[in-house]
Amino acid sequence: MSNKAPLRPAPVASEHIPLKARNVAFDWADTPLHWVPGDPSTTHTINVLHLLLPAGERWFVHVYKQVLPYIRDERLREDVIGFIGQEAMHSQAHDDVLPHLKKQGLDPTPYTAQVDWFFEKLLGDRTLPPGRARHWWLLERVALIAAIEHYTAFLGDWVLNAEELDAKGADATMLDLLRWHGAEEVEHRSVAFDLFMHLDGGYRRRARTWATAFAALVFLWQRGVRFFMANDPTLLDGKASFKEFFRAGRQGVLPTTGAVVRTIPQYLHRTYHPSQYGSTTQAAAYLAASPAATAAESRTSPGAA
C-alpha cells in the first residue's frame, strides 16, 4: 500500500513572496534578566529559544545545503536559498543573547552543550555508505525540519499577536527580536514543508517524524525551563512547573495549552499546508516597522553611509 496521501496539500498561492535575509543587530545593554516584569517563569520559558535555536538553525542550514542538488524546481530552490539565509541570521541573533545572560549571572553553557550534542551528533551526518541508506537519512532530516518548522511558524504567529506581552511591559528590544524572528518564520513557513513534499511527501514519514520532533521539542523545552529557573541567581528556590505554563497561557503571555494541542491534528491532516495558517501580510507589516529590520534595511540600501 502506498504511503502517499490521497489528498494533496492546498497551498495559498497569494502567500508566496521572495525571501531575503535581514542583517539585524540588537543592543542588550538595557534588557533586564526578567524582561517580562515580575514573571521569571514566562521570561525563562521564552528564553529557551535562545538555547535551542542557534544550534537548531545551524543544523537546518547544514542539512539544506546538502539537499540543494536534489531540488528540481527553480522557484523552490530560490525559496530554500532564501530560507538558508534567514535561518543563519536567526541563529546568530539568538546566539548574541547568550553573553548577555552570562553577564547577568546565568551561564547557559551547560545546557547549550547538550543541545549542540543533540543536533550535531544525534541528528548530524552519519557514517553511512553512499546510496539508499545515506539518502534515507537525508530525507528523514528534511521531514524533521518540516515538522519543527510547523512549530516555529506557530510560535511566530503567536508572538506577532501576543498583545499581553506589551501590556505587561515586556522589554521592547527582546520583543523586537522575537517578533522579527517570528515574522520571518511566518514569511517562510511553507518552505520546509514544500521541500519535504518535493523530495518525498510520504505520509508515514511525515507522521513519524512529527512524533519525533514534537517529543524532542517538549523534552528539550521543559528541560531548558528547569535549567533556567534552577540557575537564575535572583531566585532562591526556582522551579519550573506546568501550573505556571497554564497560568501564563491563560494570561496570554504564553501560548495556551489548547492552542499547542490543536497544532497536532493540523499538521497530521492529509490536506495540511503551512500557508493555511498565519498571515504573510501581517508578517510583512511587522518587518516594515521593526526597529531592527528597518535599521538593517537602511544599512544595506543604496546610498547608505
Question: Would you mind describing this structure in some detail?
Answer:
It is a single chain. The protein is mostly helical and 305 residues long. It is 66% helix and 0% strand. Helix 2 (74-95) packs across helix 8 and helix 5 crosses helix 7. The chain starts with 39 loop residues before the first helix and ends in a 5-residue tail after the last helix. Mean pLDDT is 92; it is low at 1-6.
Mind sketching the topology for me?
Elements (H helix, E strand, L loop, with lengths): L39 H28 L6 H22 L1 H7 L5 H14 L9 H29 L2 H5 L4 H16 L3 H9 L3 H29 L10 H10 L5 H12 L11 H10 L1 H10 L5
Helix pairs in contact: 1-2, 1-4, 1-5, 1-9, 2-8, 5-7, 5-8, 5-9, 7-12
List keywords for this structure.
single chain, 305 residues, mainly alpha, 13 helices, 66% helix
The biggest sheet, with number of strands, parallel, antiparallel or mixed sense and barrel status, is: none
**Using DSSP, what is the number of strands?**
0
- Spell the H/E element sequence: HHHHHHHHHHHHH
Runs in which pLDDT lies below 50 for 5 or more consecutive residues are 1-6
Structural class: mainly alpha
**Hey, roughly how much beta strand do the residues contain?**
under 5%
Mean pLDDT: 92
Number of H/I helices = 13
Cα-atom Rg, whole angstroms? Answer: 19 Å
> Cα distance, first to last residue?
62 Å
Assign a percent range to the helix content: 55-70%
